[in-house]
Each structure stands twice: as structure tokens, then as C-alpha cells.
Amino acid sequence: xxxxxxxxxxRLALGxxxxxxxxxxxxxxxxxxxxxxxxLAIAEAGIVGGLADWFAVTAIFRRPLGLPIPHTxxxxxxxxxxxxxxxxxxxxxxxxxxxxxxxxxxxxVTALIARAAERxxxxxxxxxxxxxARWLAAEMSPKAASDVITRLRDLLLDRPxxxxxxxxxxxxxxxxxxxxxxxxxxxxxxxxxxxxxFRETVGELVDDLLARYRERMGVYPRFWIGVASLxxxxxxxxxxSALQAGLRQVAxxxxxxxxQRLMEAIGELPGRLRNDSRLxxxxxxxxxxxxxxxxxxxxxxxxxxxxxxTLLADLERPRSEVRIWIVERLERARRAxxxxxxxxxxxxxxxxxxxxxIVERHHERIAGFxxxxxxxxxxxxxxxxxxxxxxxxxxxxxxxGTVVGGLAGGLLYAIHLLLRLL
Length: 422
Hints:
single chain
């Protein structure tokens, strides 16, 4: 609970008022003398001025002496209107586009960027990257991961896959990540085949592929495939088990022929994706067909989970390749910011333009936000807040009222005496 403001100023105001009252009592017997009447007039006027200002100051916050006097306790009675007016004033008259433009024009963003870039080091980037990765890993809930997968599917459907796939494969090859990607993909698919739901979905896909393959074959080969199926030589479970065993071998054997062929294909594929329009069309068709099947979500989910685990494991290593890659880019950007003054000016203009856009776009929201903040205080909270920040000055008003009232009373009595002499 917030404490009330110090009472020292209140005691001072009350002390001055009581001093005026004591002075009036002391000189009352001497009022017949000109000087006694003059001092009594000063004291009486001071008492009237002090009491009037006490009433005025108290009426702002509460009812004086608890009496239901009209137009008192102004803040508690009008705090909702006050909140609306404060919000309108700040949001519509203070935080205007012109005012914000003038204020941010005084901020030298280029100098701030240069100083910040000079103080940062590669170690700072490394520590920040590691901590950010840990935080993301801890905050990534299953629902958030599911939302990411859904958005990834929408993105894949909306944009051509071939150019993005070619760029991604080139980056993977350039940083020697292709071995790890193949290991993660093969390992995650082999692991996923242990789950009944995923295995059933893949089994249905295998049955569908075998059926399509038989339709394209001649009568004689189709006959022998049918015989092999009746004898149990071609069976869904056999195919799935062989597929799972093969994936595990690919994941654990660096010299596996399939892995080597995949490495070669990854090296050749970027150029083919960019130059072969028919291949790009087939990739788009395969993408649409694949994303339309139930297996797509499970495959993407399992692949993302495997890559997530691989990425986290790499980030925790003392010589993390991903972390080194990120730190190198950040260090390169830091040096560019230090050396390139034109780049800093561009960032300065961009940052200030974005601030103006935010103020202009959310102008009404700012006023509403301030109004809601004042409303949340409640009448007692509003009174306490104003007393904490302006209470001392208001108490000095009482002191000034007593002093100025006394001086005014003394001046009027002196004029009265002068007129009597004349």
C-alpha cells in the first residue's frame, strides 16, 4: 500500500494559521491603540486567508470536515471525467505527429548506434545467442510448435518451392550442414515409424504407391506381383520394416551408399531447380499433393522436432557451428555499422519514420490507454497520486494564503488609518 505524503508541509501550514490566531488573541486587548488595531487586522486577515485556502485545498480532494458542501471533493466526484480529459489531452494534443517529430529529431540515433556497436564484442554476441536459444527452447510450447507448423504449411502452399529450396540447399552445402540434415531427417523418420499412427499412415501411402505401380505394369509382371503378394513376399509390414531399417542405416553410417547418393543429389539439385522448368513444375505438383495428405503434417512435425533437437544440441556445444555462423554475421554487421556512416543515417531515418508511423497509427489507442490507466487508479488512487506529487505545493498555498491575507489586511487597515488622519 502506498504511504501518504509527508505531513511536514501540513504542519507548517497549520502552524502559520495557529500563529496568526495566537497573534490575534495576544493583541486583542491592545486593539484600541493604532498599532494594536493594525496588528489585529493583520492577524485576522491572515486567519481568514488561511481558512479560505485550507477550504479550497481540502475541497479538491475531499469534503471539508466531512460536510456535504456542494462542489467539494472534486477529484473523487469527477475522476472519470478527469481520466477522459487527461487521455484526450495527452493522446490528441501532446503526443501529436508534429510534437513527436520535433522530439525524435533531437535524438542522434546515428551516434547511439555507433557507440553501441563499438561497445559490443563477439563474446557478447555469442553469450546472447546461446541465452536466446535456451529461452526459445524453454518457451516453445507444443501449441506454439503446432502453430509454427501450420504457418509453415500455409507458406509452402502460397510460395514457389523451387527457388527457396535451391537457396536453402546451397546454404546447407556451403556450411557443410548437409550431413547433419540427412542424419536428422533419416533418424526422425525411422523413429516416427515406431509410432502406430504414423506407421499406419505411411502404410496406406505404400499401398497406394504399389497399387499405382501395378496399374502401369503389363499383365505378366502384374500376375507375378500378385503371386508374390499372396505368398507374403510383398507385404506392407515387410516394406515398412525394410524402409525403417534402411533409414536407420542411412542415419548411422556415414559411408552408406544411399547417403552418398543423397549428398551428390543435394549438390546437383540447386542448379537443376533453377534451370529446369519441368523439374520445378514437378516439385510444385509434388508439394501440393504431399501437403494435401494426412502424412504431411506428421512428417513436417517430426522433421521439425528432429531439427529442433539437433539445433539445440549444436548450440550447447562449445564450438557450435550454428552459433559461430550467427556470431560471424552479427560481427560483420557491427563492423559495417562502425565504418559506414551512410548506413547509420539510413537506420536513423528508418527508425524515426517507424516511430512516427506507430504514433500516427495508434493515436487513438494511446489516448484510450492513458484514460484506462487513470481509471484503473480509482477515486482514492487518483487522490493519493495527486497528493503525492502536488500535495506539498498545495500546502504552501495555505501558507501563502495566511501570509498574503495578513499583508492585505494590514495594508487595508493602514489605508483606513491614513484616511482617518486626513
